[in-house]
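Q: I'm building a small set of examples for a reading group on sequence design. Run inverse folding on the following structure and report the sequence directly after it, with nothing in between.
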């Protein structure tokens, strides 16, 4: 079976809508791709969860990723039950039967007990379902199990017996409420299934489906969950830990192991369903605890650079949208100390372990007391002692008295308001001042900046000096970050010589390599200089091999078109990985994109102006995704033009520009070999794809080099 790219693990709930603050017993969804967990998702209601799943599955399909979704409730009932209810042994007939009846709303109000009553009435005697919130409601459901006999249908499935489950899918109330989860879950699965690209294990093979749903129980990795929670004592909600570890463990299964788990099932499972992973719990527990650092991220897909077929010149935005959709981080993850994290990409959210400020404190030097002060003059007795930053006042301050407080001092008990010392006359054991003063004046509340448990910084963030201040303030010393993206730079061309060497007739100095290496450095990646390579296929092949080994991305310049001496494109074609990028952009010759031994190659045009523009416009945002910092569109500014230009329709144009006197000047020549213009410029002028006649004073979009990270 084709392997899965993404694993979701859904912890279902039959309960009412949960609070906005992530809480237990809600719906939690774990997400992992090849061992890389994403932040688990918290859903307040089933309706919210269903909408999230539908949207997520759409996005994964668009990105060409195959998804395995585990749910923690039975997909079927004991043998014979489906036929008893629907007249058909097909488990999906029962799914449809339930979907047609179960009602649910945003608040979580639902009719599951009524539907269970309807099923019970189809049996002789009380029927199999039991358990309800109060003994008096729903007469066709027994309050307790006593008196319920399982002679017409078994109480447990083969899978439940195998897993030694304490629960039965007929128990609707009192923990575990598995029976209620099934009733509130199967209708959602039924609707997901109607998407068409979804298969359900083990009822369907799922070999060709883009999405496979399966029953998986978090209880299978209970030992791993226990161990993980003991090893890292945090407040992380247990349900969250479960789905996080289990989705990751499943995503780490080898292809063959996965197939085994998918296919080793007893005959009864074809109607009753089966719990994915039974019999393989040791392996799942082992994978759940595999340290993160042992992992490298999932490989890119071979077709990640494919452009729409049959289009002659692809518009810039279309090409960018494809890159954005298909590229994923390729850098490994490591833990570093706060002091070493500047410029690194956060791999996980920074969650505050301490509030900032941790306690209420004074914003000024002055005198503290309780409550607001009315207009007019006031005198308060002054207590002995003081509160200073780091040296709190131990006692309590009685109402109607004041105490000396200094900036940053924790407010003593009984103090919530501070008056500036400049506004006070200090007398003998008392202070005098004039009101009014608002309650809470000059005091900082505990957590007014960040509350413990809040996400202080999001994964994907490139850490700035201010971020390090925030990280430290909220009590975090170690950060999970990505290794810097390693970018190899190769120049190609027989005509190139190294600056410092003597250039003979017909030779030119290599301008692209120093430029590209410097750009890579400014982007926060790690440049790797692979030198100049002559127009020689074997030499270039060896250089690409070497670069693929040493780097995460390869930038080449020159030789990217389809001519005799265009060896970059020729080699990528040979490797079966060549995508010719003909983009409707000026300046810009065709680019050659592809994977060389799994490493993405940006075959840039040789022309330095085109090489720079293509790097800024295409390679840079792509490298942001590969580095884990996400997609970043450069910030542009609309300003009046100081030039005139007729632009034909059909492609986007980038001019070399700069701002003088609040107007955008364009370089005197658009010649694409004019390197001096790149240097003269302080950014690019972006002119939209359509026709334009720009006159002085007309608005144009200027993107400073700084917006491109230079
Ligand atoms: P190519 O894409 O190889 O056909 O090169 C297009 C133009 O860019 C030619 O005029 C090359 O001489 C020039 N060129 C290629 N590589 C470089 C480089 N590294 N530095 C300066 N010019 C270059
Ligand atoms: Mg060349």
């Amino acid at each position: 079976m084709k392997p899965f790219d993404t694993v979701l693990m859904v912890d279902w709930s039959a309960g009412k809508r949960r609070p906005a603050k992530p809480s237990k017993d809600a719906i939690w969804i774990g997400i992992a791709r090849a061992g890389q967990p994403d932040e688990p998702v918290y859903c307040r209601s089933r309706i919210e969860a269903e909408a999230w799943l539908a949207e997520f599955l759409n996005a994964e399909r668009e990105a060409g990723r195959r998804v395995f979704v585990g749910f923690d409730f039975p997909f079927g009932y004991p043998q014979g039950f489906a036929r008893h209810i629907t007249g058909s042994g097909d488990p999906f007939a029962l799914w449809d039967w339930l979907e047609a009846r179960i009602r649910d709303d945003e608040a979580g109000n639902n009719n599951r007990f009524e539907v269970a009553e309807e099923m019970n009435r189809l049996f002789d005697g009380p029927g199999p379902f039991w358990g309800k919130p109060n003994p008096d409601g729903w007469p066709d459901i027994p309050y307790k199990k006593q008196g319920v006999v399982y002679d017409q249908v078994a109480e447990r499935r083969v899978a439940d017996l195998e897993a030694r489950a304490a629960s039965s899918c007929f128990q609707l109330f009192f923990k575990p409420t598995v029976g209620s989860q099934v009733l509130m879950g199967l209708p959602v699965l039924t609707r997901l299934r109607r998407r068409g690209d979804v298969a359900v294990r083990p009822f369907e093979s799922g070999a060709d489906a883009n999405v496979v749903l399966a029953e998986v129980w978090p209880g299978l990795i209970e030992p791993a969950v226990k161990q993980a929670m003991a090893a890292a004592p945090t407040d992380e909600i247990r349900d969250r830990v479960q789905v996080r570890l289990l989705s990751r463990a499943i995503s780490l299964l080898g292809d063959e192991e996965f197939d085994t788990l998918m296919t080793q099932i007893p005959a009864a499972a074809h109607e009753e369903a089966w719990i994915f992973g039974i019999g393989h719990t040791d392996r799942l527990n082992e994978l759940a605890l595999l340290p993160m650092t042992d992992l490298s991220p999932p490989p890119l897909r071979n077709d990640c650079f494919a452009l729409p077929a049959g289009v002659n010149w692809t518009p810039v935005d279309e090409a960018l949208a494809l890159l954005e959709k298909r590229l994923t981080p390729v850098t490994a993850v490591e833990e570093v100390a706060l002091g070493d994290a500047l410029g690194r990409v956060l791999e996980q959210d920074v969650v505050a372990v301490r509030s900032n400020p941790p306690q209420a404190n004074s914003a000024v030097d002055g005198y503290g007391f309780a409550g607001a002060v009315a207009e007019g003059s006031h005198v308060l007795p002054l207590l002995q002692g003081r509160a200073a930053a780091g040296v709190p006042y131990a006692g309590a301050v009685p109402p109607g008295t004041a105490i000396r407080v200094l900036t940053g001092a924790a407010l003593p008990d009984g103090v919530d308001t501070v008056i500036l010392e400049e506004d006070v006359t200090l007398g003998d054991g008392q202070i005098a001042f004039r009101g009014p003063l608002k309650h809470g004046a000059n005091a900082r509340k505990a957590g007014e900046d960040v509350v413990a448990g809040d996400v202080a910084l999001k994964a994907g963030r490139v850490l700035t000096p201010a971020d390090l201040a925030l990280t430290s303030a909220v009590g975090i010393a170690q950060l999970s970050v990505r290794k810097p993206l390693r970018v190899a730079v190769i120049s190609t061309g027989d005509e190139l010589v190294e600056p410092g060497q003597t250039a003979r007739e017909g030779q030119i100095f290599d301008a692209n390599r120093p430029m590209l290496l410097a750009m890579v450095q400014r982007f926060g990646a790690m440049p790797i200089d692979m030198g100049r390579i002559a127009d020689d296929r074997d030499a270039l092949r060896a250089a690409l091999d070497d670069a693929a080994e040493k780097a995460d991305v390869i930038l080449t310049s020159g030789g990217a078109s389809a001519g005799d001496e265009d060896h970059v494109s020729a080699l990528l074609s040979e490797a079966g990985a060549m995508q010719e990028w003909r983009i409707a952009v000026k300046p810009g010759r065709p680019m050659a994109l592809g994977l060389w031994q799994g490493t993405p190659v940006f075959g840039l045009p040789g022309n330095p102006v085109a090489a720079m523009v293509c790097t800024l416009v295409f390679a840079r945002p792509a490298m942001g995704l590969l580095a884990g910092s996400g997609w970043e569109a450069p910030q542009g500014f609309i300003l009046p033009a100081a030039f005139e230009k007729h632009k034909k329709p059909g492609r986007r144009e980038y001019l070399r520009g700069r701002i003088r006197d609040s107007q955008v000047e364009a370089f005197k020549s658009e010649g694409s070999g004019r390197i001096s213009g790149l240097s003269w410029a302080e950014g690019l002028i972006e002119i939209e794809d359509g026709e334009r006649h720009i006159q002085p004073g007309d608005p144009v979009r200027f993107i400073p080099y700084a917006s491109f990270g230079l």
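The pocket of magnesium ion (ligand 2) is lined by residues 492-493, 558-559, 565, 606 (CB under 6 Å).
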